[in-house]
Amino acid sequence: MATTVRKAGLVGGGVIGAGWAARLLLNGIDVAIFDPDPEIGRKAETVLAGARRAWQRLIPAGLPAEGKLRLASSVEDAVADADFVQESLPEREDLKIDILARIDRATRPDVVIGSSTSGLLPTRLQSGMAHPERLVVGHPFNPVYLLPLVEICGGAATSDATKQWAADFYTSLGMHPLHVRKEIDGFIADRLLEALWREALWLVNDGIATTEEIDDAIRYGAGLRWSFMGTFLIYRVAGGEAGMRHFLAQFGPALKLPWTKLEAPELTDALVDRVAEQSDDQAGGTSIRELERIRDDALIAVLSGLRGEDYGAGKTLADYARAVMAKLPAAANEVDETKPLALHETPVAADWIDYNGHMTEHRYLQVFGDTTDALLRYLSVDADYLANGGSWYTVETHIRHLGETKAGDRLTATTQILGADEKRIHVFHSLARASDGACVATAEQMLLHVDARTGRGGPASGAPAAKVAALAKAQAGLAPPDGAGRRIAMPGK
Ligand SMILES: NC(=O)C1=CN([C@@H]2O[C@H](COP(=O)(O)OP(=O)(O)OC[C@H]3O[C@@H](n4cnc5c(N)ncnc54)[C@H](O)[C@@H]3O)[C@@H](O)[C@H]2O)C=CC1
Ligand SMILES: C[N+](C)(C)CC(=O)CC(=O)[O-]
């Protein structure tokens, strides 16, 4: 199996295939995609543009160089030289079995083939393949480029090595693999989603609630708490200090009451019309693309919030961002170290703007923190160095706000080293608006080298120590920047 995936072959480029393309490309993997839809190029580029925008805001510290997208002329052309294949064909078992057999014939036998099916059994999907051991379900969630969950389910012939490889690979893309222990139709998540959806359709069918009222019942209540704790942990907490046992004793008996229905209502023309008309009213003329943008922005807000908590999907994101940072290449060798270094730039995202209409204060710290991360990457603080416990922590920051910046502005950070020793780096970052070069903020920081395993300060070592010393020497002749060493005080004090 491939140790590094450089090229991915995608078959089917609809909602899910295009979402996979975006996630793979943003991870620096080249993608060849086959879809007979003549509009595939435009559709895939549209999804990619949305994903790019979302990722710049979700991981502003920087991303790998984007992979290249190629529109393939056939299934075979898409997969022939791929190191990994993901099938996202329409949910039809006969079509998937047939095309998975073609993919199997056209790829190297060691290439893992993932299927995006949301409910078909992998044992049946692999039935026409000569190498069925490399077929695994990797069931994603829409939008694939933002939601981390991917359900992994093997069929009878799938090897354990394939399942493990797929889990590792999807993790490397920033996803959270969930192993489905037993092969069942609909896996885990869609069983839950369908149960809710069946009930929702009954409530519309019986005239109890409109589509909007049902969505409100979710988004103002349980939906908010599901996003970080799910059902069981939330109900444990709802049991009070006695926890789950008390919760089950109190609310378990109601499960036997005939509240919910196991059979979905018949999708009669009347019910389809009612659901579609109510859904149109609910959308109020907002286009699907605009709804996608609202959905993506809200997901970014939730994921960013959870990242701050280092919890649930936020932990997945934080781990991924750390892994990306450790892998990003240091800046090019031809950097002139005798001048302040330009190592980081970022657009100002719409949700960084506050009620005063400009970038809110804590976002400046975020941008300066990302700039410090870029400096550490430049100093060769890589995955190995971090794994050995070496890192610099920021122990003091002084930010000056000198100008306003608005959504869409591009900001460029430069970094001057004011001093350094074996443990400390004294840095001065300046943040300029790219359009007119105006300096909008500065940050002076003291970084302390720490052994992350003990939490104690200590001397840097290896390549980072040598690079800090060389950089500090190269910049020693620079004049101190305006504002360096400034303290906060009332005028004249
Ligand atoms: N839409 C969703 O919410 C989710 C869908 N899935 C699964 O992902 C798969 C794809 O679903 P969607 O993207 O939603 O469907 P879709 O209808 O948006 O896309 C399917 C694409 O396959 C293309 N196609 C048809 N025949 C083809 C062929 N012979 N070769 C290559 N491409 C072909 C179509 O032109 C279309 O672009 C299904 O298995 C579905 O169950 C999984 C998770 C969520
Ligand atoms: C509707 N669906 C069954 C295809 C949905 C999924 O499989 C997952 C999702 O994104 O909701």
Describe the structure.
This protein folds into three domains: 7-187, NAD(P)-binding Rossmann-like Domain (Rossmann fold, 3-Layer(aba) Sandwich); 190-295, Orthogonal Bundle (N-(1-d-carboxylethyl)-l-norvaline Dehydrogenase, domain 2), CATH 1.10.1040; 330-474, Thiol Ester Dehydrase, Chain A (Roll), CATH 3.10.129. The protein has helices at residues 15-26, 40-58, 75-79, 93-106, 122-125, 160-172, 189-205, 211-238, 243-251, 269-283, 288-309, 313-327, 361-378, 383-387, 462-475; strands at 7-11, 30-34, 69-71, 84-87, 112-115, 135-139, 149-154, 176-179, 341-347, 390-401, 410-420, 424-433, 439-451, 456-457. Helix 2 (40-58) runs parallel beside helix 11 and helix 11 (288-309) packs across helix 12 (313-327). The protein is an alpha/beta fold and 493 residues long. It has 15 helices and 14 strands. The strands form two sheets. Strands 3-2-1-4-5-6-7-8 form an eight-stranded mixed beta sheet, sandwiched between helices. Strands 9, 10, 11, 12, 13 and 14 form a six-stranded antiparallel beta sheet that branches. Strand 2 (30-34), helix 2 (40-58) and strand 3 form a beta-alpha-beta unit. The structure holds 1,4-dihydronicotinamide adenine dinucleotide (NAI) and the ligand C[N+](C)(C)CC(=O)CC(=O)[O-]. 1,4-dihydronicotinamide adenine dinucleotide binds next to helix 1.
Write the CATH fold name of the largest domain: Rossmann fold
- Spell out the helices and strands N to C: EHEHEHEHEHEEHEHHHHHHEHHEEEEEH
Q: Structural class of the helix and strand makeup? A: alpha/beta
Helix count, DSSP H or I runs of 4 or more residues: 15
Low-confidence region ranges? none
The total domain count is 3
Compounds present?
1,4-dihydronicotinamide adenine dinucleotide, the ligand C[N+](C)(C)CC(=O)CC(=O)[O-]
Strand tally is: 14
* Proportion of beta-strand residues: 15-25%
Helix content: 40-55%
Placed side by side, the strands forming the largest sheet appear as: 3-2-1-4-5-6-7-8
Calculate the mean pLDDT score and round it. Answer: 94
